[in-house]
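batch job 7 of whatever, protein = DNA-(apurinic or apyrimidinic site) lyase
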Amino acid sequence: MPEGDTVFRAARRLHAALAGKVLTRSDFRVPAFATVDLVGRTVDEVVPRGKHLLHRIGDLTVHSHLKMEGRWDVYAPGERWRRPAHQARAILDASDVSTVGFALGVLEVVPGDQEDEVVGHLGPDLLGPDWDADLALANLLRDPDRPVGLALLDQRVLAGLGNVYRNELCFLRGVLPTRPAGEVRDPARMIALASRLILANRERSARVTTGVDRPGRRFWVYGRAGKPCLRCGTPIRYGELGDSELTLRDTYWCPRCQT
């Protein structure tokens, strides 16, 4: 599941493949930007911003978001794609490399000086140069009655966390996702732990929160409904939590270790 660490690695791969190179192919397979042609332009950089990707190309920015299923792949010229062609949403090639964005949840081309209109609403980026733990804490507590499990997923609070980290953080801090943020004991420690967890995983292809890199042992609660808690043995429970039916997300917790 793409979260901030996944996007961080994707940006690094794309930057290494494209930065400083002139585009020889530009193909946007979404109606609103199908006529945009970036051929002949030089890619300045590719950077992450929370769970967003920004290709900065002269005075334009290609903004994409992976959502649940998206990914960017890097190929040698002529190499067979690892996903079906009908899933391709963007193709940006240089003379010696091809990059393809598949099943992108968001794809748009905006003027570079208008980047803030697409990512300016985001809170401090856990993996970015603007990371500010104090601001993230203030954002978390701005609505003290909001369930902490919803606040942690709100990219306006802090940018980069997704559902895996949300569930694991609540377990590690011993709180139910439904507990109001204002009732979380020592919320600064939760923010600090979020930073440590995502930093520890930004170089890993397999995300781990338990310290044990083996199938079935990488997470404390996420994806483990009905299985015994790795700490106390109580069966892990499953439910859904969201601000509305449209935003319901899978939620896992240990009824003994979390209160």
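notes: The first helix runs from residue 4 to 18.
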